[in-house]
Amino acid sequence: MIEQSLYSSLSGNATLAALVGTRISPAQSVEAGPFPCVTMHQVTGNFSYTQDGVDTNIEDWWQFSAFSRSYEQMRATAAAIVNALHAGTGFHAFIDQRQDFYEYDTRIHHGIIVARIWWKATSGRTMDDVLNMDNVLNMDTLEES
What we know:
elongated
């Protein structure tokens, strides 16, 4: 699935790995750290159709977030995410938005990257594929469940 390809592209990027190690995970609370770290989650999943049914060319929107106590480190992590996505295999990444925030209550710098991810499924995707939680990647173990 696309989650594994995205994770592999991020975790296999030497620059990003030097910054965050293995701290790449699905969207979750990161207030306690350790920092820097990266989260990722799918924002939308789109369907396209042909006369034969659901097309296997998929366009999804994903959000990647870089968190750090240091602005410079957050910016470096966000840049490494973008570079890892552009170098990824099995998909094409188009960066749509890049924003920086400072969360005053937690004193965490938060960089957001929103990307369109184009990829080709091995078979037509159905609504059941999107809604059935048994078909999603278990990001805790990085294995399909």
